[in-house]
Amino acid sequence: MVKRLSFLLVWVGVVLPVAAEPPMLPVTRANLYGTWDFVKGESGGAVTDPQRLDGRVAVFTPDQLVLRIRAGEFVMSYSLDEKQTPTGFQARITRSPYGVGTVVKGIIGQRGARLFLCYAHEGQVPTEFTSKADGAHRLLVMKPSKVASRLEGHWVAQGGNSDGESIDFSQAKQLLEINNDEWILKQGDLRFVMSYQVDNTQMPAQVRFIMRQSPFGGEGMKASGIVSVAHDTMHFCYRVGDQPPKRFAAKAGSESRYLRYRRQN
């Protein structure tokens, strides 16, 4: 009887609950910093051939968006309207193979580890993350580029702040060496060695550390942070414990430390 009932349930198509899709969340400028890989595109209601997206990336810095595609490099200034829902987006091309001055307007949002950008060159600004059959709207879906491999190398601290106070590196240069296994921090005669793991599924990418060597003791201490790399600049914010900061900022009372590094040749 039980087997017969199971057979009938299969054939009548019992509907099992499906996990709800993560909500579309607003975006802040700090969430964007870093390099993004294109994973999907739509134009005129049609999905772009995935092979055409291979190698295409978007790089967000504090003041620029750089698109690197087969046609060349497109550099844009951009702004966000964080009071709008979804978050408003506007960009103006300042350098490209086809001239400058073109303005695009649209919306931008975050769902899980995916970044959605829907825009129009002219006409009505999109209000939903979908392209139109008339070709007026275009949709791009991006994911964080794998950060781990781009972290490796030698870096020098340019500035930062700790719990709301500015950090001055003019008297003692801070150097950071990152290899496949360790972060090695040097400042004057001090040297710290940490093992690390990068989680690329988060936006921004998260990093978790364990102190291995320290002139002050504390071996085994854990810290968590967020990191992004754009061109030759690395933004890094962390705090002691298992909960990383959400933004690249270290305001008073946050118990966080924000650092900006420049890659050394």
Structure, described:
It is elongated and about 65 Å long. It folds into 2 domains: 29-144, Lipocalin (Beta Barrel); 148-263, Beta Barrel (Lipocalin), CATH 2.40.128.20. The chain is 7% helix and 49% strand. It is mainly beta and 265 residues long. Strands 1-3-4-5-6-7-8-9 form an 8-stranded antiparallel β-barrel. Residues 1-18 have low confidence and may be disordered.
Give a topology summary.
Blueprint: H1 2-12, H2 29-32, E1 34-43, E2 46-47, E3 57-60, E4 65-69, E5 72-81, E6 87-95, E7 103-111, E8 114-120, E9 137-144, H3 148-151, E10 153-162, E11 165-166, E12 174-178, E13 182-187, E14 190-199, E15 205-213, E16 222-230, E17 233-240, E18 257-263
Antiparallel strand pairs: 1-2, 1-3, 1-9, 3-4, 4-5, 5-6, 6-7, 7-8, 8-9, 10-11, 10-12, 10-18, 12-13, 13-14, 14-15, 15-16, 16-17, 17-18
Average pLDDT metric: 86
Shape: elongated
Structural classification: mainly beta
Count of distinct strands? 18
Walk across the major sheet and give the strand order. Answer: 1-3-4-5-6-7-8-9
Roughly how much helix do the residues carry, as a percent range?
under 10%
Return residue spans where pLDDT drops below 50 for at least 5 consecutive residues: 1-18
Per the CATH scheme, the topology name of the largest domain is Lipocalin
- In the CATH hierarchy, the architecture of the largest domain is Beta Barrel
One letter per element, helices H and strands E, the order comes to HHEEEEEEEEEHEEEEEEEEE
Indicate the radius of gyration in whole angstroms: 22 Å
- Give the CATH level 1 class of the largest domain: Mainly Beta
Q: What number of structural domains do the residues give? A: 2
The largest sheet, given as strand count, sense and whether it forms a barrel, is:
8 strands, antiparallel, barrel
Strand content: over 45%
Number of helices: 3
